[in-house]
Structure formats: structure tokens, C-alpha cells
Amino acid sequence: MASVIELCKTNSLANVYLTFLRDKHRQQDRLRFRLYVERLSGILAYEMSKALTYETISIETPLAPTKGMRLKTTPVIAGVLRAALLMLEVFMDYFDHADSAFVTAYRKYKSDNTFDIVIDYLAAPPLEQRPLILVDPMIATGTTLIKVYERLIQNGKPSQVLIGGLIASEQGIRTLQQALPTAKIWTFAIDPELNPKAYIVPGLGDAGDLLYGPRK
Q1: Is residue 168 within 8 Å of 189, Cβ to Cβ?
Q2: Which of 88, 124, 168, 215 is the most buried (most CB within 10 A)?
Q3: Are 86 and 94 spatial neighbours (Cβ–Cβ below 8 Å)?
Q4: Is the pLDDT confidence value at 111 over 90?
Q5: How many Å apart are CA 18 and CA 78, to the nearest integer?
Q6: Which of the following CATH numbers is that of domain 3-212: 3.30.43.20, 3.90.1150.10, 2.60.120.1440, 3.40.50.2020?
Q7: Do 77 and 133 contact (CB within 8 A), yes or no?
Q8: Could you tell me if 60 and 66 are in contact, meaning their C-beta atoms sit under 8 angstroms apart?
């Protein structure tokens, strides 16, 4: 079963940043909201980097030869647009030789509040035997990430699947664990439930709207 790391279980500045993102009175400051999403994304990238494979290389400092490390295989980083666009940019800064995959996915609601996941654009490099890092701010039902993964692997089977989100729901985690049992999942908090429209509760609202403005 997919392993799960909940980063805010220990006290750190990540808890402070996440508290700001959740606060409906402070999250209207879009500049600071984006800043704290950037900071948490950087922490997430660092923590997820620990699961990748490295190799030792020889280098020379100005004073002497020594040993260093580099990634054995450069990863592919996929972000679910539009909400994950900022996270994707941060991850590309940390994994500066990585390739990117761009996927647009959205919920198409029906009259009974159920929905289908619609993917209408995907651009991705070859994935065969490369680590795949999937990022999305909110892991609600988990079905969006599963649909995105199913489309991505048409470009090859990755060697690892690493999933990162800011907040997840218990249901979303269970769904991912069942569908992608070999994946590894990182999130800052796991919230207990979803509302009738499948938004995470308590969550923080619609991450995409808070980052980029409301949709019509």
C-alpha cells in the first residue's frame, strides 16, 4: 500500500504557513497567499527529494578533490493545471534539470453534484523508467490524480511515482492508496471529510481561485 507522510504532524514553520492559507480572513491577501504556497511547495520538494535515487561523483573544489552527489535519473514533474501551476514552478526551481508535464484537468459537475474528470490537454516527455512527481494543492477525492496518471503513462511507465499536495482528505488518500499502491504520498495535513461538492473540510477553499482569481 502507498506510504503517506504527513509533514505537519511535527511542529515547524510549515504549520504557520498552512495556518495562514486556511484562514479565510487572511487568505484574501493574494500576494501573501501565493508566497506561503511557494514556501510550502519548497519544503515539499525538499522532503520528496529524499525518496529519489542518487549517485556519487568526483569533483574538485579550489583546494582538493572530493566526492559529491547527483540525481541518478532526472525526474518528470507533472502539475494539474491551473491550481498546481505555482507549485510546478517551485518544483522546477528545486529540480533544475527536470522535465515538465502539463495537464489540464477539471471537474464537470452534474445536476446531482457528482462529476466527471475532464482532461483536455496534456503535454509530457517520455516517462519510461524515470521518477514521476505529481503535484496538486488539494488532494480531495484523489480521482483527478488517478486520471492524470492514467493519461501520463501512455508516455511510458515511470520508475517511481511520488505525489505531493498541501492538504489531502482521508478519502483521497485511501483512493490513491488503492489505485496506486506503489506510490509515495506527501502532504502537510490530512483532513477528515469532504462536503457534498467534494471539497476538503476544513480545507482552505478553492486553491485555484485563491491563487488566480474566481472562474466564471
Answers
A1: yes
A2: 168
A3: no
A4: no
A5: 22
A6: 3.40.50.2020
A7: yes
A8: yes
